[in-house]
Automatic annotation (TrEMBL):
It catalyses: [(1->4)-alpha-D-glucosyl](n) + ADP-alpha-D-glucose = [(1->4)-alpha-D-glucosyl](n+1) + ADP + H(+). Residues 290-433 form the Glycosyl transferase family domain. One of its GO terms (biological process) is glycogen biosynthetic process. It comes from the Bacteria. GO terms for cellular component: cytosol. It holds the Pfam family Glycos_transf_1. Belongs to the glycosyltransferase 1 family. Bacterial/plant glycogen synthase subfamily. This is Glycogen synthase. It comes from Planctobacterium marinum. It is an enzyme of class 2 (transferase).
Amino acid sequence: MEVLFVVSEVEGLVKTGGLADVGRALPVALKNFGHDVRVILPYYKAIAEKFESHQISDTQVLYANDRHYHYNIRQMDLDGLCVYLIDFPPFFDRDGIYTDSYHAFPDNPERYAFFSMAALHASTCIGFKPQIVHCHDWHTALVPFFMRRDPTGFYAQSRSVLTVHNGAYQCQHPLHDIPFLHPYEEIAAQKDNMGAINFMKIGVMNADKINAVSPHYGYELKTPLGSHHMYHEYMTRQHDLTGILNGCDYSQWDPATDPELPENYHTDDMSGKVSCKQALQSAVGLPQNPDIPLFGMVCRLTEQKGFGYLLPILGHLMQHNIQLLIIGTGDPSICEELHHFAHQEPEKFVFREEFSNHMAHLLEAGSDYFLMPSLFEPCGLNQMYSLAYGTIPIVRAVGGLRDTVIDLEESPDQATGFVFHSADSSALLNCLRRAALFYYEYPQQFKAMQHRAMHTKFTWEDAARNYTGLYEDALRS
Ligand SMILES: Nc1ncnc2c1ncn2[C@@H]1O[C@H](COP(=O)(O)OP(=O)(O)O[C@H]2O[C@H](CO)[C@@H](O)[C@H](O)[C@H]2O)[C@@H](O)[C@H]1O
């Protein structure tokens, strides 16, 4: 199949979170499955500064209201993957992808409405007629709407798939600021009483098929509590909504080959993991004690990741003989609390406010436990990386975390981690205490759990097979 993969981030080029990991690994897996996949994303400043690409057509123009958008199409090769870039400096030649590190760019809705329109337009200019146009999250959720109303007929036989990586981000914005949507009366009819429209709703109501990034998140989207206030839309589309579990990119996340680690390791010889722990403790200034359990966490600092109930128990946690390391960037108020706490407990707790791929890899390898107590988690990738690195995940039973981690009490012989249920501090604290006790009291069982974790596999090949099935369903619709 010919697939146009329209996405706002691609790991290796530009990344703010898990969307980028999927933006790289899934098209590669689909290509390996035999599909002709072309990825298209904005030509951000960060890409222009670091990577070679070349312009492949004359300057193109799009019109919306009285505005003209003159843009260029560029192309590059990313490890055998064909990548097109939409070059429009007024929107993309700036520091930051979505934010200036603190605040979202106010013109994000217009930027991504333009990108969605330009991605489809560019494909017609290039002459690539895809059977499937696969878009992701709110940034490209207008693509299915524009496809259905394409006046040229170029996409008449094409079908659209919208993947929901994070349904909480929907982009609600005044229609007035989004010129590309002005011509459509049906959109004007959807304005709420503040004059705003919702990109994600438009995507869900117009895509031929929709999928969540795990089966359980697919189920949650169809519940009032888990739908992020889009229960009506997800229920309306329930027969076209499914869940496909993300994979783990083992070419990037394998402790036996990971070049970011001071020493590699595998299930037959775990001594390298001890060196990684030592290197991690040394890198962040924690006492170099190999016997104390080290809990690690790396994530975007947002409420989604469970800080609402993690922050209140940090003090209680420090009464135990453990170490905790958190690496992340995001919400300034969470940063402030973490910095404050780190000053109080320098021997036990370190907070690094940074985005570092190297440190993320070292943390995955050097920690004993990986903490992921999310309020909601569409799939989650770090728990998969943790399993691969023999770093036992501690997760809440939501979304993809529930689909990928087996709790010790639930199934002692198959357990790969610790799972708690309620979104509250005491449930989390109990779970963390359970994990610390297990580490100290049952070292042999801890090792056995590490081995089981490292043998657990969630491959992109499986995901690509499932997406192929979804594409086939879309083409039949
Ligand atoms: N400070 C930092 N330094 C270095 N690396 C950092 C970092 N902060 C985060 N990362 C990296 O970003 C990625 C985070 O991926 P996740 O899937 O866990 O979360 P995210 O919420 O961004 O993704 C959303 O999309 C993905 C993809 O579908 C879903 O799995 C997920 O549930 C959904 O919320 C990992 O590769 C992680 O290592």
